[in-house]
């Protein structure tokens, strides 16, 4: 028997243990079954479960459990990402508390500390995923820094290097002075800030009172200028001298012509700082300009900035430069300007474009294949609109800067000979120079971008570069589920690496899910205080209610507005299912599966027909990743058709007053079991618990019972008749409401129908109408004179008359309605007055005005309904 009420935590614990002990999530390395595989987007090892994970995990779990039921050998590969900068930051903070920093510790000891940290805290996120019910093959858990994956990373690096697709170059990169690392373009967040545009005169050598006026938002960078550029067709500058003096230095710099210059910006003269601006860097290359680094990696001015500025912080230097230019009379004007300033995505420090020697992946040959694979349909992106975004990015792809100046990560397998300067890239650690045999080698100190190892995730986790059974069975994977925010960081790069090294796409389908926002559609953030914590939700509502809510709102291309009220609603659904199962179980105790089930009642035939349709709908929704449609179809079916109508309809049979009890019990058992099967991928815990208590419980998880696709067949005539009966019952119930008749009072009705077959059918099933509508007596006739003092319900050709004579006191009911109408009238006056008040409308907060407007229209509606009822009563009662 089931407990009186559903206790999610006990049930979740029980089934988590069952799944684990019986290895229910284990994939087979080889199998005759069709394969289905997903690799998890590895959460950061520093991560804490948030709404995004919860949604992502729920959707993947639905697909994995669904495919197990469909008979697939399913691999859901779990793991975590070492998250270079993020993890290093966490451990550095820990060290700071002890009054230490990583430099004091040294590289090896620091890395050891990170591993210790990982051992102690790195499992937290995995345990949180387990609480979500994630059916990953946990015995295969991988980590982007484990030995196998490290081998894969090295192999990829060496091969790309040997193919000429990895190179070292001086490059202008986005530099975070706080994290002390280069950042990829994508790791820079641009924020519009109030700044200034400084107009500065660079005097002509011959005529220092005249000169070119340049405009800049970062005047301190002028110390590193190596040219001024004008547009070749700018008539203002056809006859300018070919050099100007660079103020605050004793340098003279050339005036060059380049069509990159925007003639409409400022005066059309552009200062060129190749070491500190990406566009200037390109101009510098075209004109073979010198690069002078005046800002160092620590964001302080270098000696090349000149003795008066050397050692100053870049922003202090900016002030000093402005002052000095003012003193010289060279600052022409300063105007306020809103402009985009790049910030580090990790620590929000202002990024400094800076010149440094970095490692790059030459991406265009890789991108070419990745574009073709989507064009050919080898990989499908759902929803389709993301395909366009993918192409746009891939066609404009830039070389990928993969080196990071941190310690935690895959150290680049390159060695420099200190004697002959030879650079060697190698799979194994090098001890001798291959050119001069010197042992005086140093390894590259940079590590790889975290995304480099995660780009290999679909095949590195399956044992590549070994030719494993796992790869053969499960690569390419079936599906990848991800948020759009890492479409470029991760998905595109997996496409490139997968196609290059495995000669096949990493996944056949990519499903891009939406963002989870708050109930007003705002992004959840700590500072706004609108974050809903998934662990708190699980604690209070249970995992199943939470998972079902996420699935029910996961519509393609639409963000999810999450609120506790919504989760509460689905918790009610979970409880409704529990109660329905409890009710069914009390009757199923007397059910024997050996008895024949060939005497199906109308409700039996109807529910089997509906279930058949629902199962097929859910299947096609899931196959097309319409999670919300699948969840809502099941919700409607279970709550309304199964609980509200079917269980109510079969009560006379269950209590032995009508029909063939064993047949109906067989049907009830079948429908309940199949519904649990259909629901299982969404709400795994409660479904396992209920199924285990029903007759003939399976000795495996529900995941390994057949997906209920072939229950029965669609029975149109049963559906038609049952629909007519339900319409009649609903009509009679509405009259009860309108006429304020107690639900326990048994009514008399007369049905007029011109159709002899229908009259016969209703006659046969009149116990259904009697039970469901709570009737004393029912008369079925051909249409004739309208009975006196009765309310009517018209359904197609059929009319139902509900006798009211002696049921209600018409006068009294009319008075009651009049009183109520008057009361509402008064309330309406108040609300109308407010809404007519300009002062109120303009001054009250939007939410308050909205509330009053809503109340007003609700009152109007109620009043209309009551007036309608009053007219009916007066007509029927002749008053
Ligand atoms: Zn930073
Ligand atoms: Zn050497």
Describe what you observe in this structure.
The chain has 879 residues and is an alpha/beta fold. It is 45% helix and 18% strand. The protein contains 29 helices and 29 strands. The chain has a four-stranded antiparallel beta sheet. Strands 10-11-9-12 form a four-stranded mixed beta sheet, with helices on one face. It has a four-stranded mixed beta sheet with strand order 27-26-29-28, with helices on one face. Helix 17 crosses helix 18 (564-588) and helix 18 (564-588) runs antiparallel to helix 22. One zinc ion binds at residues 417, 419-420, 422, 433, 435-436, 438.
Radius of gyration: 37 Å
Distance between the termini: 56 Å
Shape call: elongated
- What amount of the residues lies in strands? 15-25%
What compounds sit in this structure?
A: zinc ion
* Most strands sheet: 4 strands, antiparallel
Widest sheet: strand order? 6-5-14-16
Number of strands: 29
Structural class: alpha/beta
Helix content bin: 40-55%
Global mean pLDDT: 92
Number of helices: 29
Poorly predicted runs are none
Question: What labels describe this entry?
Answer:
29 strands; 45% helix; alpha/beta; 4-stranded mixed β-sheet
Please give the structural blueprint.
Layout: H1 8-21, E1 35-39, H2 51-69, E2 73-77, E3 79-80, H3 84-97, H4 102-105, H5 107-121, H6 124-131, E4 142-143, H7 147-162, E5 166-176, E6 181-183, E7 188-203, E8 211-216, E9 227-230, E10 243-246, E11 251-257, E12 269-272, H8 278-286, H9 314-328, E13 331-344, E14 352-361, H10 364-375, E15 380-382, H11 385-395, E16 400-401, E17 403-404, E18 414-417, E19 423-425, E20 441-443, E21 447-448, H12 450-454, H13 457-460, H14 469-474, E22 477-483, H15 487-501, E23 507-513, E24 516-517, H16 534-541, H17 543-552, E25 560-561, H18 564-588, H19 602-623, H20 627-649, H21 651-654, H22 661-679, H23 684-693, H24 716-738, E26 747-752, H25 756-764, H26 766-773, E27 775-781, E28 790-795, E29 798-803, H27 810-836, H28 838-843, H29 846-876
Parallel strand pairs: 1-2, 3-4, 9-11, 15-23, 22-23, 24-25, 26-27
Antiparallel strand pairs: 5-6, 5-14, 7-8, 7-13, 9-12, 10-11, 14-16, 17-21, 18-19, 18-20, 26-29, 28-29
Helix pairs in contact: 1-23, 10-11, 10-15, 16-17, 17-18, 17-20, 18-20, 18-22, 19-20, 19-22, 19-24, 22-23, 24-26, 27-29
